[in-house]
């Protein structure tokens, strides 16, 4: 597959790249995009074949379903049910940003992200290019742009080197803030649980929850 690469710093290329990426997603292809943490590998979340292509490109199975990126906080309620109050506070404080919340999935959703066990991991990234693309495509299944077992890409060059043969479009916006991926919180229960530590510390999350009298538990 020939990769089409676009420099996001160039206004002309930026618009052409966003259009090409949105069209590629619509056709079921994979796209590399920058985020506020690391570069991501994106597929249409509602196209099971595209999601399978994403997992195959990374060399992972259904037991590791990709998170879903959204362009607005309000989209969470279209994807999840029973979102607890502490998760709402974290969303207000840290979205857009490097925080992924695992919530109970809307049972009416017609998609297949893998073995999710009735949950969905959702994040709103703090990156203009990512948000612009998401506003055109709707929710995207996005995993870090790397082969499983390798470091996540923090540049378009790294992402293309690992995944270029599987990708239709690469959106290059220079180095990202990585190499640390987002903090992941399990928000499916009455108390939030830390699943992966990222740029947001447990102390910082708990500061935001102090007025609510809730806390995130680090069971590691």
Concise account of the structure shown:
This protein is α/β, with parallel strands linked by helices and 220 residues long.
Describe this structure as you would to a colleague.
The protein has 220 residues and is an alpha/beta fold. It has one domain (4-217): DHBP synthase (Alpha-Beta Complex). The chain has 7 helices and 12 strands. It has helices at residues 11-26, 48-58, 76-79, 85-94, 128-137, 156-163, 202-209; strands at 4-7, 31-33, 40-44, 68-69, 80-81, 99-105, 119-123, 140-144, 169-172, 183-186, 192-196, 216-217. Strands 1, 2, 3, 4, 5, 6, 7, 8, 9, 10, 11 and 12 form a 12-stranded mixed beta sheet that branches. A hairpin with a 6-residue loop joins β2 (31-33) and β3 (40-44). The longest helix has 16 residues, at 11-26. It is globular and about 50 Å long. The N and C termini lie far apart (42 Å). The model has no long low-confidence stretch (mean pLDDT 95).
How many strands, which pairing sense, and closed or not: the largest β-sheet?
12 strands, mixed
Put simply, the count of helices is: 7
Number of domains in the coordinates? 1
Helix vs. strand class = alpha/beta
Number of strands: 12
Assign an overall shape: globular
What is the CATH topology classification name?
Answer: DHBP synthase
User: What is the radius of gyration?
Assistant: 17 Å
Report, as a whole number of angstroms, the end-to-end distance.
42 Å
Strand content: 15-25%
| CATH homologous superfamily label | DHBP synthase
Percentage of residues assigned to helices: 25-40%
Order of helices and strands: EHEEHEHEHEEHEHEEEHE
| Unreliable runs | none
Overall CATH architecture: Alpha-Beta Complex
């Amino acid at each position: 597959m020939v990769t089409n690469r676009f420099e996001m710093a160039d206004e002309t290329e930026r618009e052409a790249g966003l259009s090409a990426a949105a069209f590629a997603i619509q056709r079921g292809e994979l796209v590399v995009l920058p985020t506020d943490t690391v570069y991501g590998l994106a597929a249409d979340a509602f196209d099971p074949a595209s999601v399978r292509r994403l997992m195959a490109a990374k060399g992972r199975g259904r037991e590791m379903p990709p998170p879903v990126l959204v362009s607005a906080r309000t989209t969470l309620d279209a994807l999840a049910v029973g979102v607890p109050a502490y998760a709402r506070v974290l969303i207000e404080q840290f979205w857009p940003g490097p925080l992924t919340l695992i919530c109970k999935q809307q049972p009416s959703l017609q998609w297949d992200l893998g073995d999710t066990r009735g949950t969905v991991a959702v994040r709103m990234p703090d990156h203009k290019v990512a948000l612009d693309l998401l506003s055109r495509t709707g929710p995207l299944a996005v995993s870090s742009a790397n082969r499983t077992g390798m470091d996540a890409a923090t540049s378009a060059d790294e992402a293309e080197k690992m995944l270029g043969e599987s990708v239709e479009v690469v959106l290059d916006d220079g180095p990202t803030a990585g190499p640390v991926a987002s903090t992941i919180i399990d928000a499916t229960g009455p108390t939030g649980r830390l699943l992966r530590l990222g740029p947001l510390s447990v102390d910082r999350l708990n500061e935001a929850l102090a007025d609510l009298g809730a806390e995130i538990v680090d069971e590691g």
